[in-house]
Amino acid sequence: MTTRNRRVRRVHAALAAPVAVVAVGLGTVPATAAAPAAATPRFLEPGELPPNASSDWYAGDVTAGQPDPLPFCVGEALPSTTVHRQFWTDFDTNAVQATVVESSVRRAQEFAALLRKDLAGCARKVMAENPDVTAQSRYYGRLNVEEGAEVFGVHTESYGASDIHLFSVGVDGTTVTVVRWGQMGTFAQAQVADFEATTVTAVKKLY
Q: How far, in Å, CA of 88 to CA of 84, rounded?
């Protein structure tokens, strides 16, 4: 069993439902049908993720539907029309990109605002729903790319497990993309500058 899979089992055993949503992205890539590449915006490639000192990045197919498991903080807001791609390393670092094409620029802006609101309140909501979890959020600011992108961080700790996640929400026209990166650690281990570069690339690649 790989270190990554051992981590999955430990997190899910420690965090009883619904706290298991905190272990976002640590599961294996779902065996669902790949979305036709020509019909969807372009997605990140493994080499465009924040560099990992111990492993290469790997990626699943660009896949129609919501990620499984749903990303915590933002997963509940993702519609069935979401298209996503999962990423992982040989160890504990993992990521997911989820993209939604809306029917208008206004609807895209409204959806992005909803996601930002969910991220801003994520730590408070996690602790309210799960008394055994301690969570803290940070806002890292806005990136000047297309119609803009914003970056957030969320640290969670429960039963001795400490995890750091970075999120970004970016908009290009009618398209909204969310990128989540996570690994064991604290805010001190968050690769914020690298993640911001990844976010800029993700938004520029939408069309």
A: 14
Which residue bears the tokens 């270190």? Answer: 3
Write out the two tokens for 12.
């899910």
Per-chain mean pLDDT for the chain:
85
SS3 content of the chain, % helix, strand, coil (to 5): 30, 30, 40
Which helix (H) or strand (E) covers residue 140, if one does? strand 134-143
Domains of the chain from N-terminus onward = 3-204 (3.40.1000)
For residue 207, what pLDDT is reported? 81
| pLDDT in the model for residue 41 | 82
| Inter-residue contact 167 to 110 (CB < 8 Å) | no
Other CB atoms within 10 Å distance of the CB of residue 49:
28
Task: Please return the burial class of 10, using the count of CB atoms within 10 Å of its CB with bins 0-12, 13-18 and 19+.
Answer: middle
Element spanning 117, H or E:
helix 105-120
By residue count, the chain amounts to: 207
Q: Give this prediction's pTM.
A: 0.82
88 CA to centre of own chain: 12
CA 17 to the chain's CA centroid: 19
| DSSP β-ladder status, 161-172 and 175-184 | antiparallel
Name the residue type at position 26.
L
CA distance 172 to 82: 15
* Residue 109: predicted pLDDT: 97
Rounded Cα–Cα distance for residues 109 and 105 (Å): 6
